[in-house]
Amino acid sequence: MWTLILLICSIPVSGALWAEKDVTGILGRAITISCHYEARWYQSYVKYWCYGRTPLCNVIAKTNWPNGRISVTDKKTQGIFLVTIKNLQWRDAGRYSCGIEFPGIHFDLLFNVKLHISEEAVSVPGLRFLSQPNVSCSGGSVTISCESAQGSLPIQYTWSEKMPSQDSMISYTNKLDLHCQSFTQQHHQYYCTASNTQGTKPSEIVHVSVNNVREKNCSYRIQINSIGREYTCDNFSTISPTTSPKISRGATRTSSGPKSVSKSYVVWDVIRWVLFTLLVICSVSVTMFTRKH
Fold it and tell me: What is the pTM of this model?
């Protein structure tokens, strides 16, 4: 009798609580499920996420009560609470419910959600500097990271150097450390590879040009096209393809005008000396004329 009553009372009130009925998460990554409700009616009630489809479901997490990888965040003014599950595993797949708790009453408001877990191929890994690239001009090391924004985890990363015959693998992490003294040629090319069970994707090429490899004055240039910037050690300036060059502190700023003296300045200098000569002649003439008389 009581079981029948509970099952009847668990039927969601039309429009009071709703979400997507089927959601899919990527293995190893996080997913956020949005559970909507009528804020004017249920704003002050406790929201939760439970495993199962009936009022007898197993509550996993509540608002202000996270449970390991799972948390529930209530955005009361928007009438929505977010269920976030991190590091999705195969065992997380199943039937769940968004729930609103009614204290002292024999039933809660529920909405059923089915969670699916799938695998996804890696995306083309993106590159970014973890240190300022200008340290390459003073012989310092530069670190570049590689990461795929999409793809089921775990993802394996490797760094390789392009060679004439066969590419050489140099690192089994997602970080590349460049040291000036380790370069053996004037030009080097590196790339990162991301791979998981669904596929493999290489990154773009990192171009390195060595200016010199002297121990006390070692410098090199790094170019990554997608970042859109190239650091040039010749004039210590960061050059962007779409902007005018910026000269950093310590660099010598050169004038955009001609280096020779302007014509107007030369003409005025000649006139000044002619007037001075005439003044001297006039002064001498007056002196001699005075002595005769």
Answer: 0.67
Contact between residue 136 and residue 231 where contact means Cβ atoms under 8 Å apart: yes
| Euclidean distance between CA atoms 102 and 91, whole angstroms | 30
DSSP 38: -
Give 11-29 pLDDT, tens digit per residue.
445 469 999 999 999 999 9
Topology (CATH) of 2-118: Immunoglobulin-like (2.60.40)
Please name the amino acid found at residue 51.
Y
Write out the two tokens for 42. 């249920």
φ, ψ of residue 210 to 5 degrees: the values are -90, 125
- Domain map (residue ranges) of the chain: 2-118, 126-247
Cβ-Cβ contacts under 8 Å for 19 (sequence gap 6 or more): 33, 34, 35, 36, 98, 111, 113
Domain boundaries 126-247, corresponding CATH code: 2.60.40
Paired residues of 73 in beta bridges: 82
The identity of residue 38, as a single letter, is: E
